[in-house]
């Protein structure tokens, strides 16, 4: 079982428009809402692939009730812990005309010290049934900045590998616990390291404690700096759609590959194909399995020959 942690869970609301008109009234042709947050999205993808997963994190208020209701309706195993403050909402506006998305991200609830202590006890109990742990997303207010470092160390105490997908101070702190894999995107790499070259930035994260760094580069695919070598994996063409959950789909593939011990070429090809399949799906956390099957054998995976630029 792969355990996903989403400390800053959300109720994701997606508005789809034929064309977004700034500073004007817009009428969506489709509106959807569902439980969200990066770790929840990872669990959704794992569940769609028929893999065992459990989703934990913090939820509160009426929005938290809606989150838990959707988890149950989706068939996901809900291991969320209730807190007093209201769970945040996120709004994604999908512009069909340009094939891109604008997102509005609320900051999230304030978590009290006793609630954080309760979560650590809750997390400790869940580790006993896990094969790997995925820690994803931002930290809600009140949770210490080294929260992911604490959770990585707890997982390591149970001999469990970890994947961390976050940025900034939370990622820098997590590196002190030496997670097996971190997966920022290009913007998160730059924000965390201050370096604009993604390969140099990824190398700096490895030097600071990450076992492997896999970085999303949007339409250019992924780069991976691993103990077994450095790789660039990319799709045969750019897909137009909703990229909101693409990175989470890649994390799901990487976590599965970690548990199975899949060779890096196969692991990265799967991550790129699943990421593309997420772009082709309308909602974050979904994947178009037909797109995944079609693109999987077409993904390019090659050694990363340049440490200063990506092709």
Mind explaining what this structure looks like?
The protein is an alpha/beta fold and 311 residues long. 36% of the residues lie in helices and 25% in strands. Strands 1, 4, 5, 6, 9, 10, 11, 12, 13, 14 and 15 form an eleven-stranded mixed β-sheet that branches. A four-stranded mixed β-sheet has the order 3-2-7-8. Strand 4 (53-60), helix 2 and strand 5 form a beta-alpha-beta unit. Helix 4 (147-157) runs parallel beside helix 5 and helix 6 crosses helix 7 (198-207).
Number of helices: 10
**Helix-strand topology string:** EEEHEHEEEEHEHEHEHHEEEHHHE
Distance between the terminal alpha carbons, to the nearest Å? 36 Å
| Helix percentage | 25-40%
Silhouette: globular
- What's the pLDDT, averaged over the residues? 92
Based on the model shown, name its key terms.
311 residues, alpha/beta, eleven-stranded mixed beta sheet, 15 strands
Question: In summary, what is this structure?
Answer:
The protein has 311 residues and is an alpha/beta fold. It has helices spanning 38-48, 61-73, 113-126, 147-157, 168-175, 186-193, 198-207, 246-260, 264-279, 289-295; strands at residues 2-6, 10-17, 30-36, 53-60, 77-78, 81-83, 88-95, 100-105, 132-136, 162-165, 181-182, 212-216, 222-226, 229-234, 300-303.
Explain the layout of strands and helices.
Blueprint: E1 2-6, E2 10-17, E3 30-36, H1 38-48, E4 53-60, H2 61-73, E5 77-78, E6 81-83, E7 88-95, E8 100-105, H3 113-126, E9 132-136, H4 147-157, E10 162-165, H5 168-175, E11 181-182, H6 186-193, H7 198-207, E12 212-216, E13 222-226, E14 229-234, H8 246-260, H9 264-279, H10 289-295, E15 300-303
Parallel strand pairs: 1-4, 1-9, 2-7, 4-5, 4-6, 9-10, 10-11, 11-12
Antiparallel strand pairs: 2-3, 7-8, 12-13, 13-14, 14-15
């Amino acid at each position: 079982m792969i355990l996903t942690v989403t400390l800053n869970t959300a109720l994701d609301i997606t508005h789809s428009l034929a064309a977004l008109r700034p500073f004007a009234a817009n009428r969506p042709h489709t509106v959807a809402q569902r439980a969200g947050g990066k770790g929840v999205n990872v669990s959704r993808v794992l569940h769609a692939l028929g893999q065992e997963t459990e989703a934990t994190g913090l939820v509160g208020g009426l929005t938290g009730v809606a989150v838990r209701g959707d988890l149950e309706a989706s068939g996901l195993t809900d291991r969320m812990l209730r807190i007093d403050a209201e769970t945040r909402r996120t709004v994604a506006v999908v512009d069909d005309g340009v094939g891109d998305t604008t997102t509005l991200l609320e900051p999230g609830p304030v978590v009290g010290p006793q609630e954080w202590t309760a979560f650590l006890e809750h997390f400790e109990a869940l580790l006993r049934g896990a094969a790997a742990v995925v820690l994803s997303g931002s930290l809600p207010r009140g949770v210490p900045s080294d929260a992911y470092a604490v959770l990585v160390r707890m997982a390591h105490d149970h001999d469990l590998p970890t994947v961390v997908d976050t940025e900034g101070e939370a990622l820098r702190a997590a590196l002190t616990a030496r997670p097996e894999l971190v997966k920022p995107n290009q913007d998160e790499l730059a924000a965390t390291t201050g370096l604009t070259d993604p390969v140099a930035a990824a190398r700096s994260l490895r030097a600071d404690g990450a076992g492997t760094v896999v970085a999303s580069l949007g339409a250019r695919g992924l780069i991976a700096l691993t103990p077994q070598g450095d790789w660039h994996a990319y799709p045969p063409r750019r897909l137009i759609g909703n990229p909101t959950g693409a990175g989470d789909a890649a994390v799901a593939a990487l976590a599965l590959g970690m548990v199975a011990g899949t060779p890096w070429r196969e692991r990265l090809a799967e991550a790129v194909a699943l990421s593309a399949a997420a772009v082709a799906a309308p909602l974050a956390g979904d994947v178009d399995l037909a797109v995944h099957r079609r693109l999987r054998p077409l993904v390019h995976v090659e050694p990363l020959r340049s440490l200063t630029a990506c092709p």
